[in-house]
Design the sequence.
């Protein structure tokens, strides 16, 4: 892993907030993400982009070079968990935010997360992620599932939550040094749930900050939506296996709420949410079969 600094003399040598963005093969979406990060209201912020072995590394480098507060790291294609850890190792701020290359944080996003961590003296904070593609029923359904998985874990009395996706998450650098992402998760599936579980298991709090909004611009075909949900099923099996919860089902209210959230975007989105459960089950079955083969 090598760092390619784009600004030899950073405007602020001691940033208060760092943003780590793993990316792979989406330079156009990355450009939109970085433009949104340049519009952040936080005055002291650095952006660390980790190129996880993109096929067109030059295109990524050109996008990053156009952003004054950004610098680039080269990854080895080991997945988003390893890419985030690499970004954390070089980040210089006491609070590190995470988002994805197909996301667009609102201008006050990073400042809101940093302020919440500072005011509550908690280790981590997360905000809402919303669908940025209202024209896409596939994106609406995918976001409904991801949003429900996170927001169903929020305690309304305390604002604490048990899970937040890394599309919209912040944590202190000190805690990230002791609770890193598990790099044995090779895909963008399950590694964020595993990290949140280990964070809470270490006695740290994760709180919800509603002002820290991120819009998620997913570009999905029907086949891509199916593959995404199968991948999530694989990650879910791995997560449940690692944490001893394979036989523990969610409460019926979880699934009722999931369907309500899906159908809130219309009958087609609701039908896709239902279909996604079959894809998730298939992914879990495939991962279980792979796990059995590995122990033989």
Sequence:
């Amino acid at each position: 892993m090598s760092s390619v600094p784009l600004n030899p003399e950073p405007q602020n040598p001691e940033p208060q907030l760092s943003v780590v963005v793993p990316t792979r093969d989406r330079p156009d979406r990355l450009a939109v993400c970085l433009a949104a990060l340049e519009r952040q209201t936080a005055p002291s912020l650095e952006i660390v982009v980790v190129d996880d072995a993109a096929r067109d590394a030059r295109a990524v480098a050109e996008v990053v070079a156009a952003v004054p507060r950004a610098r680039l790291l080269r990854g080895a294609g080991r997945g988003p968990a390893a890419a985030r850890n690499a970004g954390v190792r070089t980040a210089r701020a006491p609070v590190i935010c995470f988002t994805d290359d197909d996301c667009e944080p609102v201008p006050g996003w990073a400042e809101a997360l940093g302020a919440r961590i500072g005011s509550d003296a908690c280790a981590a904070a997360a905000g809402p992620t919303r669908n940025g593609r209202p024209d896409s029923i596939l994106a609406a359904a995918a976001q409904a599932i991801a949003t429900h998985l996170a927001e169903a874990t929020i305690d309304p009395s305390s604002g604490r939550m048990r899970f937040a996706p890394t599309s919209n998450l912040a944590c202190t650098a000190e805690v990230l040094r002791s609770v890193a992402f598990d790099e044995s998760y090779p895909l963008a599936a399950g590694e964020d749930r595993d990290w949140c579980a280990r964070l809470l298991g270490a006695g740290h709090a994760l709180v919800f900050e509603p002002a820290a909004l991120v819009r998620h611009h997913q570009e999905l075909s029907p086949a891509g939506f199916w593959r995404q949900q199968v991948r999530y099923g694989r990650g879910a099996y791995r997560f449940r296996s690692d944490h001893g919860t394979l036989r523990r089902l969610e409460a019926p209210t979880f699934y009722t709420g999931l369907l309500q959230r899906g159908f809130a975007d219309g009958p087609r989105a609701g039908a896709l949410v239902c279909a996604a459960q079959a894809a998730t089950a298939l992914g879990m079955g495939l991962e279980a079969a792979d796990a059995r083969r590995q122990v033989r």
Summary: The mean pLDDT is 92. DSSP finds ten helices and eleven strands in the chain. Residues 267-295 form the longest helix (29 residues). The longest strand covers residues 17-23.
